[in-house]
Amino acid sequence: MPAKPKRKLKTYQTSLGFYDQAVAAPSMKAALQAWGASSNLFHQGAAKETDDPDIVAATLARPGVVLRRPVGSDGPFTESAELPTDLADDDARPRRKTRSKTRPAKAAKTPSGKTDAQAARKAAAAFEKEERRREAARAREEAARARARARRDKAVAAAEAAMDKARRQHEAKAEEIEAERAALDDRAEAEQARWDKQRAKLEQALRRARA
Questions:
Q1: Partner residues linked to 69 by β-bridges
Q2: Deepest in the core among 12, 19, 144, 197, taking most CB within 10 A?
Q3: Cβ(30)–Cβ(79) under 8 Å?
Q4: Quick check: 59 and 22 in contact, CB under 8 A?
Q5: According to the 3-state scheme, what is the secondary structure of the chain?
Q6: For 50, phi and psi rounded to 5 degrees?
Q7: Quick one: pLDDT at residue 190?
Q8: CA distance 15 to 188
Q9: 152 pLDDT higher than 80
Q10: How many C-alpha atoms does 12 have within 13 Å on its Cβ side?
Q11: Among positive and negative, which fits the CA dihedral 122, 123, 126, 132?
């Protein structure tokens, strides 16, 4: 069975932490695995394929091995690169101890008996003021309710008075009509009696005339 042809190696470069890193790998995926990257640096624009002859030569001499150089430098890539010069200088420079400017907080003074008495008087005055405010509010509410009751009672009394007046007027008119009706009945009865008497006389005269 023929052996599978070896894939052509490419050189990939990125910057991670304090180092530029380069590796010769058959694919971007293999390069990411060699760098131990947890995300796709190529999609993020943080890694690329390079054709720099010096970098390509260094990585192809050690395929699959991650080579490094201090970040931002243009020196050769090696397996054991030193830290960036400015970072090393900062680490070597002695640091001066800074004295904290924070002053210890002063211990809170224990309130004296005089302060306690003043606070108690102040609290009592505030309580009394609030009580007076509530009493005034209750008095205003009670006065408003009293005025509302007075208006309601006045309206009820006016309505009842109007009802009584209308009832008296109706009863008076009813009595008047009833009296008129009684008078008409009397007139009707008188008229009927008069007619009965007259008719009797006329019938008697009519009979005599026919005899």
A1: 20
A2: 12
A3: no
A4: yes
A5: CCCCCCCCCEEEEEEECCEEEEEEECCHHHHHHHHCCCCCCCCCCCEEECCCHHHHHHHHHCCCCCEEEECCCCCCCECCCCCCHHHHHHHHCCCCCCCCCCCCCCCCCCCCHHHHHHHHHHHHHHHHHHHHHHHHHHHHHHHHHHHHHHHHHHHHHHHHHHHHHHHHHHHHHHHHHHHHHHHHHHHHHHHHHHHHHHHHHHHHHHHHHHC
A6: -120, 145
A7: 93
A8: 133
A9: yes
A10: 27
A11: negative
Residues in the chain: 211
Residue keyed to tokens 């590796």: 23
The pLDDT tens digits for 12-59 are 999 988 899 999 999 999 999 999 988 999 999 999 999 999 999 999
Give the tokens for residue 23: 């590796």
Whole-model pTM over 0.90? no
Which token pair is 121?
């008087």
pLDDT, the chain, mean: 81
